[in-house]
Amino acid sequence: MDNVLSKADRTRQFIIESTAWIFNTKGYAGTSVADLTDATKLTKGSIYGNFENKEEVALAAFEYNLILVKQAVDQQVKKSVTYQEKLMVYAVIYNKFMGESFPKGGCPILNTAIEADDTHLLLKAKAAAAIYRWRDDIVSLVKEGVKAGEFKAGMESSQLAYSIIALIEGGIMIAKVTDSPANLETILKTVEMLIVQLKA
Questions:
Q1: Domains in the chain, ordered, with CATH?
Q2: I want to staple 61 with a disulfide (CB 3.0 to 4.6 A). Which of 15, 20, 152, 174 is the partner?
Q3: Residue 143 burial (10 A CB sphere; 0-12, 13-18, 19+)
Q4: Do 105 and 30 touch, CB atoms closer than 8 A?
Q5: Integer Cα distance of 135 and 123 in angstroms
Q6: Tens digit of each residue's pLDDT (9 = 90 or more) over 122-162
Q7: Which residues contact 5 (CB under 8 A, 6 or more apart)?
Q8: Other CB atoms closer than 10 Å to residue 181's CB: what's the count?
Q9: Helix, strand, or coil (residue 37)
């Protein structure tokens, strides 16, 4: 794919990939221009010759981190046979939020939402859009499961989706604050229970 990208596009992508983990670990406010130049070995002028400002880099970095998570989820969903197994992927993947499936720093949605909820409207909007896309993905799986006869009909799929997302993101937050992955495992058992209860 690099062959079809211009030199400027390749440089932009290099900057995004090199700095995405920093924004995901330190946050927007905590990431300095020096962090960006150290990570890329480029000058400030080179970085801002490709991006208007730090904000533009941060927004692109968020999208890049989100793609990494979505790819990990989609890969496992495609391997799953039943719709119950497909939904369970979320509990499995997010149980390893500090592992290889996730960008360094953990879940970009949680990290960005916590930092930007009152301080950075553009990042807040990115995090909100990511949650809505996640909700839609879960709703789609539930509806397909109902069509396939796996799940009970008549449930409020959007409510269920938000509940699963809230449990997962809340579980990650609790695990991080308490330094206890076991707390996340306990909370994800509730996610598993919700999914099991969908069975027709």
A1: 2-196 (1.10.357.10)
A2: 20
A3: middle
A4: no
A5: 18
A6: 999 999 999 999 999 999 999 999 999 999 998 899 999 99
A7: 13
A8: 16
A9: helix
User: What is the distance between the alpha carbons of residues 199 and 145, in angstroms, rounded to a whole number?
Assistant: 9
3-class SS letters over 150-174: CECCCCCHHHHHHHHHHHHHHHHHH
Q: In which residue are the tokens 């809505």 written? A: 132
**Residue position matching structure tokens 């027709």:** 200
What pTM was estimated for this model as a whole?
A: 0.90
Per the listing, tokens 């900057």 go with: 15
Helix (H, G, I), strand (E, B) or coil at 199: strand
Q: Specify the 3-state DSSP secondary structure of 98.
A: coil
- As a whole number of Å, the CA-based R_g of the chain is 19
| Residue 151, phi then psi, degrees to nearest 5 | -110, 155
The tens digit of pLDDT for each residue in 158-198 reads: 999 999 999 999 999 999 899 998 999 999 999 999 999 99
CA 3 vs. chain centroid, Å, equals: 28
Distance, in Å, from the CA atom of 172 to the CA atom of 187, rounded to the nearest integer, reads 9
Quick check: 115 pLDDT over 50?
yes
| Residue 13 burial (C-beta neighbours within 10 Å; 0-12, 13-18, 19+) | middle
